[in-house]
Amino acid sequence: MQCSEIQENLSAYLDGELDPAGAAELESHLEGCESCRSELESLRSTVELVRSVPRVQAPPVLKQRLASATSSRKPVQESRVFWG
Ligand SMILES: [Zn+2]
Questions:
Q1: Residue 4 alpha carbon to ligand 1 centre in Å
Q2: What is the reported pLDDT for 26?
């Protein structure tokens, strides 16, 4: 497998989404390839950083307000402007 293919699969590998055969192939490549190993390490530290931050979710009410605010916005009607 090419390094580019390996690196495309690294995030799936970290998430445990690779099938066992693919994971084994990736691991055997990592053993012999320093650049892919360092790529994996930097990806892993990024993933761990993201996971360590508590996930903040917007309250549903706020989401609804945002949705209605964006969908009900109407263009300004210039015909309402009177000049005396
Ligand atoms: Zn490689």
A1: 7
A2: 96
**Where do the structural domains in the chain lie, given as residue ranges?**
3-52, 57-84
pTM: 0.58
Contact 6, 13 (CB under 8 A): no
Distance between Cα 9 and ligand 1 center (Å) = 11
State pLDDT tens for residues 45-57: 998 888 887 777 7
Of the candidates 39, 40, 6, the one whose C-alpha atom is nearest the C-alpha of residue 24 is 6
Distance 49 CA to ligand 1 centre (A): 24
